[in-house]
Amino acid sequence: MTILVRDLRPTDPADLEAFVRVRRAALPFMIATPEITGFELAGAHPDKRYRLLVAETAEGEVIGTAQVGFAYESPEPGRSFANTYVHPDRRGLGAGTALLRTAEAYLAAEGATELFVWVLDEPANRAFAERHGYRAGRSAHFLRLDLAHAALPPVPELPAGVELRPASAFAADPRPLFTADAETTADEPSDVGTELDDYQDWLRSTWNHPALDKELTVVALVDGEVAAFTAAHTDGAGRYASAMTGTRRAHRGRGLAKLAKAASLHRARAAGYTEAFTGNDSGNGPMLAINEWFGYEICAAETRYAKRLAGSSEA
Questions:
Q1: Where in the sequence is the domain holding 287, given as residue range(s)?
Q2: What is the pTM of this model?
Q3: How large is the angle between the packed helices 256-270 and 285-294, nearest 10 degrees?
Q4: Distance CA 251, CA 187 (A)
Q5: How far is residue 97's CA from residue 104's CA, in Å, rounded to a whole number?
Q6: 121 φ/ψ angles, rounded to the nearest 5 degrees
């Protein structure tokens, strides 16, 4: 079958819908909407060199997608990513290979030295990555919580000096949240480290992200200073996702992240959300334990594969 790979047409509502349709089918445990897709492409940092690719049949049916770019926030230059997904009903037609080859050629031409791809942890997917020369790295889990029926634990009692506020309380000056996000993100276990040091980029890509629900994003303050937080993404159609949960180093071990997330989940349920999703690196024991306490259950797993690109010093 003939497969054509091209860039997403961001001004075409039908193309955005087709991209999201494939993403939802391949990754039902992640939030995807046309608005989010268009926003992330239009607002991407220039150093990200971000492209959204689609694979379509000769008849014009979009059957695969890829998110391609540079990990520009990594302290190690030359690291890039290409996350490709094919509609489950259209696998085996060559869309995944066509997308990956296009992504590799683009990134190599742009100077990338190493390419990382997330692969759903299924035998066929792992074999696909290994056939294309990728090696397995860290693994992660997707988790789901039935907010409509789960017996959520109550919000723990607030310790002395601790208060909870929604992110909307920081609308006039969100910099304290940026500082907390930067510190906690730097400590996340990952194959690709991240350093958040551009406040304006954070405002554009994180604070103003259309999925960020500033009322359900909950911040724990200790004596008036941001100590922990949980960021909530929602799709307005019953689905809630934890975008990031973390505690600043000086306040760890006090249960503040659990406190913030408990408050957020209870608020999400009261607001009518019925499904909650999150993702955890398999080595992040503390966060996995917190999510198990809430009643989350693992619904899928993925592995990050990596490959040196042709022309790099280790290729």
A1: 145-301
A2: 0.93
A3: 40
A4: 14
A5: 10
A6: -80, 75
The tokens describing 113, both together, are 């030295």
What's the first-to-final CA gap in the chain, in angstroms? Answer: 32
Nearest one of 51, 101, 49 to 78, comparing CA atoms: 49
Q: Considering only CA atoms, which of 246, 20, 261 is closest in space to residue 152?
A: 261
pLDDT tens across 7-64, in order? 999 999 999 999 999 999 999 999 999 999 999 999 999 999 999 999 999 999 999 9
Which residue carries 């259309």 as its tokens? 210
Flag whether 181 is in a domain: yes
Tokens 């290979």: give the residue: 97
CATH number of the domain residue 38 falls in = 3.40.630.30
- DSSP SS3 for 123: helix
Q: pLDDT by residue (tens digit) across 197-221?
A: 999 999 999 999 999 999 999 999 9
Phi, psi (degrees; rounded to nearest 5) at 77: -70, 155
